[in-house]
Write a structure and sequence with these properties.
20% helix, 327 residues, 22 strands, alpha+beta
Length: 327
């Protein structure tokens, strides 16, 4: 695999990476196809599915049970335990680990200390054998057997969101007695989730761990957050100010948008059959105004990045409810 950049501002980052690789005795070469590229001989590519399949097998041998499609709707801290509501069911537990991609609870206001970043990916015909990763986020390419995975600004086959902590590193640790937080893996889910599991295990067993203070969930970096502050404020401006004045008068089939009807604001989707669907324009999470993403056919909240399909059904939180349908 090759890391590359065509942005002069990012050249220094790759030069530092190259320096440390060479410091540890690695031979680094540049294929000269981009402004700066670094590659290594005899690389191995991590296969996440094989890793997860084996991890599941190990857990099953230990009689660990997995519950899919079991969304938590509410958590109540009681005197000696926690009461967890899971889609009409209740679970009582003494210890609780909050390990979600983005926090849906307001405790600790962690939803204000991170934001979500959306990326799309396409499956296309294979055109080369070289695996490339752009640190400019322009285009990345990974060959498969007969196809290739391509990530660029025009990708739309699938999308996923990553959570970026404003302090620069994930939150991993004990929030209060019997309660633990794991948030904000910053696009390094496999690596950071493994580290988080070690940290939480050592906390639970009262073992020493060299990373406890570094990843503690009880501090916040104002200086580092300045890197993302402008972006976060722009998201809030869109959701609470601009979209009030960004309405449409007409829609084509397969389009959605905010429309004023009889002086009232609606989120409206015109489906491929020509049927109109009306919703409240406000995200049920914290009332940010929604926008329609025509490329992915989704409603998206710019404030905290909840996602709904074109018919208002919840896809990703922190919101826990579908969009409110209107007649």
């Amino acid at each position: 695999m090759s890391l590359y950049t065509d942005n002069l501002k990012n050249v220094e980052k790759l030069e530092k990476e190259q320096h440390y690789l060479q410091f540890f005795g690695e031979t680094v070469f540049d294929n000269q196809k981009h402004l700066k590229t670094i590659s290594l001989h005899h690389q191995y590519i991590f296969h996440p599915l094989k890793y997860l399949y084996h991890l599941v097998k190990c857990c099953q041998k230990k009689n660990v049970q997995f519950y899919e499609h079991s969304r938590v709707d509410k958590i109540i801290k009681r005197k000696n335990d926690f009461l967890v509501y899971v889609q009409g069911h209740r679970i009582i537990c003494q210890d609780l680990i909050h390990a979600s991609r983005y926090p849906f609870i307001k405790k600790g206001f962690y939803f204000l200390k991170m934001f979500q970043s959306l990326e799309s990916i396409d499956l296309k015909q294979r055109t080369g054998n070289q695996c490339t990763l752009s640190i400019d986020l322009t285009e990345s390419y990974r060959p498969l057997k007969n196809h290739a995975l391509v990530i660029n600004s025009k990708s739309k086959d699938w999308f996923a969101q990553d959570t970026i902590p404003l302090r620069g590193i994930p939150y991993m640790g004990r929030y209060k007695e019997h309660e633990y937080f794991i948030y904000g893996f910053q696009k390094w889910g496999m690596t950071n989730s493994f580290l988080a599991s070690k940290i939480i295990k050592d906390l639970y067993l009262n073992n020493d761990n060299a990373y406890l203070s570094l990843f503690s969930c009880h501090y916040y970096s104002l200086s580092y957050s300045k890197i993302y502050l402008k972006q976060m404020l722009h998201h809030l401006y869109l959701g609470y100010v601009k979209f009030h004045f960004h309405t449409k008068k007409n829609l084509q089939r397969g389009q959605g948008g905010l429309m004023k009807i009889n002086h009232k604001l609606y989120a409206v989707y015109l489906d491929k059959q020509g049927i109109y669907h009306y919703f409240s324009p406000y995200c049920p999470h914290l009332k940010g105004l929604l926008s329609f993403d025509e490329k992915h056919q989704i409603w998206h909240c710019p404030c905290h990045q909840s996602i709904f399909d074109c018919y208002g059904k919840l896809i990703e939180g922190p919101c826990l409810k579908d969009m409110n349908k209107q007649k």
